[in-house]
Fold this protein.
Amino acid sequence: MQTVNIVLSGLGGQGILFMTKVMAQAALNKGLKTMGAETHGMAQRGGSVISHLRLGEVEGSLVRTGSAHFLLALEENEAYRNIPFLAKGGRLYANASPKSFVRQEVKPYLDKMEIVYRAIPAGKIATDLGTPMSSNLALLGFFSAFEKNLVTHKELRNAIDQVTPSRFKKINFKVFDAGFEMGTQ
Amino acid sequence: MMKRKDIFLGNGAVALGLVEAGCQIVTSYPGTPSSEILPEVVRLVKSEGLNTYIEWSTNEKVALDNAFAAAISGKRAACCMKQVGLNVAADSLMSAAYLGTVGGLVIVSCDDPGPHSSQTEQDTRLMARLAKVPVLDPSNPKEARVMARLAMELSEEFRIPVILRPAIRVCHARQALSWGPLKNNTKKASFEKDPARWAATPRFRFILHGELNEKLKKIARRFEGLTAHNFHDLEPGKKYPLGIIAGGIPYSVVRDILTEEDRKDIPVLKIGTPYPFPEALADIFMSACEKVLVLEETDTVMEYFLRDRKKVLGRLSGHVPSEGELAPQVVYRLVDKVLKDLGLAPFKGDRNQDALDLVASLDLPVRRPTLCAGCPHRASFFAIRKARPKAIFTSDIGCYTLGLNLGGVDTCLDMGAAITMASGFYHAFNQDQVAQPIVATIGDSTFFHSGTAGLLNAVYNDARFILVILDNEITAMTGMQPTPGLGIRADGSKGKAISLERVVAGCGVDFVEVVDPYEIKAMTKLLKKATEYVNSSTGGIAVIIARHPCVIAYPKEAIPERKSVTVTDDCTECNFCLERFECPALYHDEELGRTNINQSLCTQCGVCLQICPKGAIVEA
Ligand code: SF4
Ligand code: SF4
């Protein structure tokens, strides 16, 4: 299999590490080789946080700029900030308002690079379900509605089941499924 | 039992390797990027029912001394820390290298090229060279695990402490590893008295130094043939215009790039044992290449060991940046430039400049890290600035360094320097008869780590300042490790809680008071009282313990009574709260033309109810 490079970005406290864990577990379950890199420490206090995930035969854990197939962003500005990671034909999923995403100045570049972008108000979905800190799961659910070739909704759901402490399972599935439904509409 | 496959954090892989090596004693002091090693050992020990002794020590030197004693009683011991922690343990390390060990002693020191979460980018490999102990440099979690075992075996075989140096991108990488049932090491402690060694005087130290040098020669020979970690892909007899020597993370980065670019014309020598350096192996590689580019993080180590200087490209020749991380895009560009300079075929090219220019043109707000919503430190800093606006604010290392954002931190040097610098400032100004107010802030864990020696010194030498110990009952920044004040040990068992009040009083301080910083008025009042004490002729150093649990570690205890908060139209957009209180939940709402509260970030701590000069922040 060709290497798949994924970048996950957001702000400290938004649950980027958890998202990375779920995706990595799902890949492992499929028998894929995985390498990931995470941010810990000072930046977790609200600074820009980024995770790299690479599936396939690789030595290093970091994604080089210009070579990511997917960028998942839990915050709009963090999506823009990390655009340089995306390869030609890459896909961008962001927690942002679908109406205003993307900023006009960014569009020509994305078009030129044939980058597909989709936005979901993940923060709002999570807040409406009473768990404002779970926008990460809404975004993952949304992602799973489009990228079945990489990992199906069901595979991601199983991975969430494996890595979620039991008391959060119900609510995590609820937000994840809500994100998925918004994607399939 | 069957082997299982799980995803391990790099630090978990190190933990696994140590436990597999039969490590019986593991000590540590938390610090990014090393903090998760000990908790991962705890996890393995619990799940596999092992009897490994585990402790969070009060600092890195304490951790290393403890592990050393275990190692010279024949047990296998390890001690984990971050790279600047090794500075604290350096005294112990230098001496331990001479004395040697009986059982294995592995020191895991994690580097932070970048730096992402450290004061410096210092390179542990140089510390290893200085101390004359071997160092292993893994390129990914899988290798870190194998090297942890190897380090233990080498240490025991050659009776020498061995350093394992994973860099942050190894520590915080994730990789799937197969692992199987783990066994207890049942080796019993036995200490053979030998004062000429274990309490060696300088005359004997000279002899021990000679022994150490002999050990290193033998280990160097071993490393020459250590093909699992030191290897190259030269074809016999072939000559190359350029070769690359790399170790650690830069090796994995450049390996991937060469594979992607399909460049079989550039051989790579990977070195997993930078010290003692396998010179003969490097010589073979060098003689097959006209030029050799050295890629290593963060400092220059291998580059110095290559004798044919004319052939070497690296930091000394200006081809490799001397600071910062060798991230894939950095390596890509620098190798590409070397290829062009040497007239060789360049890389296919990265079209990234457009994207970088685009992002730069967007003027995106820089998201600086900040204290969490509801953080008790924010309340403390607010009160301190209010009570002593003209003071010099010496501070220390932890979450509260972010008091920077509130104007409550002027200095941050090293662990414990809030106190030592406060006394230094005091004497510098006092010499000129200037009564400069000084307020030092230090966290509870940092105080236990290196606070007491500085406080004793300040009391003894009659310095005058206010010390605020920010006691949130946890080591928060590094991921919520317990402190001695809490009386909970690394494995969750009960230890003896150490009373901060008693320690402070024991240092000779007569003014020790405890306050809840959420009560901004009470804290401000206490700071005024402390000021009077500091300034009076019969006074001294005043210590305030600002005690309130961390809102992340103890959300319930930190905010027992939630208050729903809102901002009224009385807000005049003075932005006082945004600048001086800086709660991430408070923001300026352009549409409303006033401050507003982001309810999804707000923890309903209610502290901001006490700060608006216009009384515009009220309970909903
Ligand atoms: S809420 Fe109060 S402190 Fe904040 S900007 Fe408005 S008037 Fe100023
Ligand atoms: S109540 Fe005020 S200080 Fe506390 S988190 Fe909410 S906005 Fe911040």
Helices of chain A lie at 16-29, 76-81, 107-112, 122-128, 135-144, 153-163, 169-184.
